[in-house]
User: Fold Quinone oxidoreductase from Actinosynnema mirum.
Amino acid sequence: MAEFGGPEVLRVEQAPDPVSGAGRVLVEVVWAAITFVETQVRAGNAPWPVRVPLVPGGGVAGVVTAVGEGAAGSCWGGRWR
Assistant:
């Protein structure tokens, strides 16, 4: 998101393929969600200061495809432990 506003300000952009870094995992996203709060942020109505550029949408589910060095933890019901 480069600016606040309605659907008319949204645009598709190219981004480099992500890679897992130290202490991180790479997830192939199968499902993503945008919450009502995120729609309000995009519209410029957030109750807290928000700066752009911004990539909204923290709700994702998918498959861990790479584990960076030092990444530790587990996932719900998955194979990464």
